[in-house]
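User: Hey, quick favor. My workstation is busy. Could you predict this chain's structure for me?
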Amino acid sequence: MYSSLKKSIFVVLTCLTFFAGCKSGSDKTPNLSSQSISPKDTAANHATKAKNNLASFYQATDTQKSQKDLQSSDKNISDSRQNAITKATAEVSSAVVSVSVTEVDQSYDYDPFFGYYINPGRMRQYKSLGTGFIVSPDGLVVTNQHVVGKNPNKILVTFAGKSYEAKLLGEDEYGDIALLKIKADTTLPYARFGNSSKTIVGEWCIAIGNPFGLFENGSPTVTVGVISAKNRNFRPDPSEPHSYLNMLQTDAAINRGNSGGPLINSLGQVIGMNTFIVTGGTSNGFVGLGFAIPSNKIVKIVNQLEEKGKVTLDFDPGFQAKPINLQTAYRYDLPIMQGVYVYSVNRDGPAYKAGILPGDILWRIGDERIYSYTHFQALLREYKKGDTVHFVIFRRGNFYEATMTLTNKVKDDKSK
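Assistant: No problem, here it is.
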């Protein structure tokens, strides 16, 4: 078809050139004595002109076509660079912030002769950096509690080239979650939470944060990986109050300073908060084992921190317990073992109905061993009113099982 079109255009241009020549010749009588041009030569000249015109036409057409092809190719390449990961990153990055915390600590001198610390009063300042992310247009910021620290003197939140002093609204040491608030003159970009229970092992995920303080005056760092596993539980460190349960595992690179940053899915939804890494004793850097607090837990705790400034249970287990240490074991003649000691039971509560009595040692909740009192508190938080809880208790040298349904707080606090 293209060849036929070329032939047709050639014929048309030849005819036009010929007629134009004829018209030119009729306007002025040629001097036959000075020109000796045969009809055959005239026709050849017209044919040459027509051929040259046709070549110019094709050259212009081919140039336009090449330009269009080049533009189309550039657009295709640009489109191919855009994918779910780049779109999700662009959507969330503006809500990611750098968190800078200044802590004040009072130092003491140790007197080896008297065996205690003396000369209090010397103050030292420590500065730490982490990550956070905005979760509301009015300036609520979520980060890890260990980023904020125990005695924060000043908290600065930086993003988009500006720094804001933040107020600590509440913190939860067990869950390692802190809620901050900043004031800005405009509506702020914020990240949206997804449902962490619907994450799929093997799906793409993106970690955004401030490793090594690189984001303090710039833009956040983005790393990509997959969800490696779900529901990872870790034995609590006796020296730390944090208890990590049902964590998401990822191989997206997480390094020092990433703590508190969002872990998002390819839809641009926050499914977790990057919290710590496991190096296996091989190094201090990332080796492919990063862990994030699931978003469903974050939402639950943040709602309470915003409303009350602390986390409380919406049920009453109907008993009171304390940690088992040397003092407790000596006082109550208990074996030295892991668990918590029940010293009071409400006769109208669910624990009494389940057969739990004062003097029992709670050794297991569900499938989890109780390693400490803080671990016990963290395990209770995984339940809500109406849930059924299974306990393994130790009583007078034997283990027993007890099952109770969690109910509202009991007003009549009668103890047995």
